Amino acid sequence: MYIELMNEGTDGKSGLNYLLSFAENKALDFKEMSKQREQKATLQIVLVFALSIMLSLVATFLFQRNRKSTNALQESEKRFRTIFEQAAVGAALVDTKTGQFTRINARYCNMLGYTKEEMVSITFMKITHPDDLEEDQNNMEKLKSRTDPGIFHGETVSSQRWFYCLGKVIRFAYVGCWSEAE
After folding, report:
1. pLDDT > 70: what percent of the chain?
2. Domain count of the chain?
3. CATH classification at residue 156
């Protein structure tokens, strides 16, 4: 075969010329393939870089949006806390499932003669006069179920007797409000 290629190629060229031409074409093919691989690798690097920039922009946007939401929530909680604590009237938050006081302002404690620590350790049922307890519990259920058409947007008003810390009975009006957060 070697002798045959040296003598004459398949297209009438000499075997050596044919081998040189074949090798040259393969070298060009190899260079072209290398160039294509280089271009493909460069394109991949550019795409990865572009994607990383886009992802970092999205992450930055989401972080800033979350930070704004967090700041707004903190500001809202601060306003609520300030209004709640500085109110001229007594205010308390009660767990509707257990009747436990969860948050009480100073005015509410002063009205009943208890400290905040004492109030969070008792339920509204404990300080409610026994003759008013059933009505109070019914009002709580009405607030939660929203079945009473007289209750406007989850509010009820009632006059009730509660026990002062020294056993004295006091009477006052209150407004009960139901919140979806509960």
Report:
1. 64
2. 2
3. 3.30.450.20
